[in-house]
Amino acid sequence: MNTKILVTGALGQIGSELVNALRARYGEEAVVASDIRMPPRGTDGPFDFVDCTNQRSLQEVIRRHDVRTIYHLAALLSAVAESKPQVAWDVNMGGLYRVLEVARETRCAVFFPSSIGAFGPDTPPDHTPQDTVQRPVTMYGVTKVAGELLCDYYHHRFRVDTRGVRFPGLISHGAPPGGGTTDYAVEIFHEAIRHRHYTCFLGPDTRLDMMYMPDAMKAAIEVMEVDPSRLVHRNAFNVTAMNFTPEELAAEIRKHIPDFKIDYNVDPVRQAIADSWPNSLDDRAAREEWGWNPEYGLAAMVQDMLENLGKKLKPVG
User: Fold this and answer.
1) Cα–Cα distance, 82 to 48 (Å, whole number)
2) What is the pTM of this model?
3) Which residue range is the domain that position 305 belongs to?
4) 124/206 same-domain check
5) Residue 181: pLDDT above 90?
6) What is the dihedral of CA 164, 166, 171, 175, to 10 degrees?
């Protein structure tokens, strides 16, 4: 990969961990973090305030740091986007368009994260193929499909090196939930440790693909490092690591916290979003074209989450 690297949305759920992973791999000074918020005091490494809907701001930062690769993560997530669809379009699509325009001018490579949300109720729900029907019914999903197509266009029309993956639900102990439909799979650990009880906003049998954040970082870095001659697809690869329901996740947590209990108060908005997504993804294209191979399954993820959060959280009462 060419350095330097700019990460937009660097203070978000993915960005905060991706910046650390990239700096560990390429060096602290090689990675410029950016966001529309200022980082906490004491944060190390280069940081710039960047509004991705302001093309001049992007141009200035990219030229000043001689950026060669952009990880464009700034976006509204699924549940928040559905509550603010006009804002989601402006941020998710307006920001991506300006990033791609600047990349065209400066010959930067671009990573764009798509999502399981790019699929819809007409998509084959089990082992969803890499290439299939994409008719999402949420604004978040619409912006992800449009983003995939726009990245493909900029590659074919202007030869911008665009690449991306379709993330499933992401689970992390390092950042709080950010307004996604799969946030229950993060909240449940906090509540299990602190209260031994969790009320889930999705139904007990809602089956979705998931991924632990270390594997998400691995996917984002590896897809950008692979020789482009190996790639048949670009925007975006299905990737997955594990598959479970809230009830199955709770059962795995009980192996470590036997008195943990879960009940349900279904949020109809987020349940409808989840029901429109596939039950599982087929990620053979990623495995064949760039060697994708996750490291964490359900049992290993649960153990690691509880160990890490247990260092920060204490039971209440």
Assistant:
1) 29
2) 0.93
3) 170-210+242-279+295-310
4) no
5) no
6) 40
